[in-house]
Specification:
There is one protein chain. The two termini are 54 Å apart. This protein is mainly α.
């Protein structure tokens, strides 16, 4: 049974898959369709990553526990070899023994901290790598909508280097709408990592992707509104 208060990877994958099919129906040879296919693959990989992140790594934890026990055992054994009697010992000897014990405690403490946090660091590294890939996807989607200028239909002053007008107003509106949906879904895929690993670094990276995609969607919808206004003007002229 699905939880209504959580993002479900399966639902997101299904939505991305449907979007890819919708793009394929209207723009089968477009670069946007290829980007959506890549987003679909990242969504599926995210599902696997989230499953890995959500489960404890028993093997790694057991390995860390054994190493920590060995380290503590070695420390206790080294203490047993030290003759703590102060008879015939100078202050310099006592300081050397104390310094050695202190250094060993620092090494054992540092090693223990490293081993205890190893699992979270491995998971964080995997999540950050995928989040960065999603950030790149967002920029690629932005590149696809960048040259889609709605004013090209209103002012016929193109130069030889102007973007080619290959879509009708309706088709361009649908194309921009697909860009907006793909951008929003990219943010939802990234949010799966923050949901599964509420680490400060992960949450901050996911928020960056969210801000990026929100800004992109805002730019796209400005273009869509311009197209809608141009369409209304065309209808009113008839």
């Amino acid at each position: 049974m699905t939880n209504p208060t959580r993002l479900e990877p399966e639902k997101i994958i299904e939505t991305v898959d449907i979007l890819e099919k919708r793009i394929s129906d209207r723009f089968p040879d477009s670069g946007l369709r290829k980007v959506c296919l890549e987003l679909l693959q990242l969504s599926k990989q995210t599902k696997k990553n989230v499953s890995y992140i959500s489960k404890p790594n028993i093997t790694l934890r057991l390995f860390s526990f054994i190493i920590i026990l060995i380290g503590l055992g070695g420390l206790i054994f080294s203490f047993s070899l030290v003759n703590m009697e102060t008879t015939n010992r100078t202050l310099h000897d006592l300081l050397q023994i104390t310094e050695g014990i202190f250094n060993n405690l620092i090494l054992i403490g540092g090693g223990t901290l490293f081993l205890v946090t190893m699992e979270s660091r491995i998971k964080r590294k995997r999540a950050l790598k995928s989040i960065n890939e999603l950030r790149v996807i967002s920029h690629v989607i932005d590149m696809h909508q960048l040259s889609k200028d709605p004013y090209i239909y209103d002012f016929n002053k193109s130069t030889k280097h102007s973007p080619k007008r290959i879509y009708t107003k309706f088709e361009l509106q649908r194309y921009l709408d697909y860009c907006s949906e793909a951008s929003s879904l990219t943010a939802k895929v990234a949010a799966l990592y923050a949901q599964s690993l509420p680490d400060d670094v992960i949450v901050s990276s996911v928020n960056e992707v969210e801000v990026l995609t929100t800004g992109l969607s805002r730019k796209i919808w400005q273009k869509i509104r311009i197209l809608q206004n141009l369409t209304r003007e065309d209808k009113s002229n008839f």
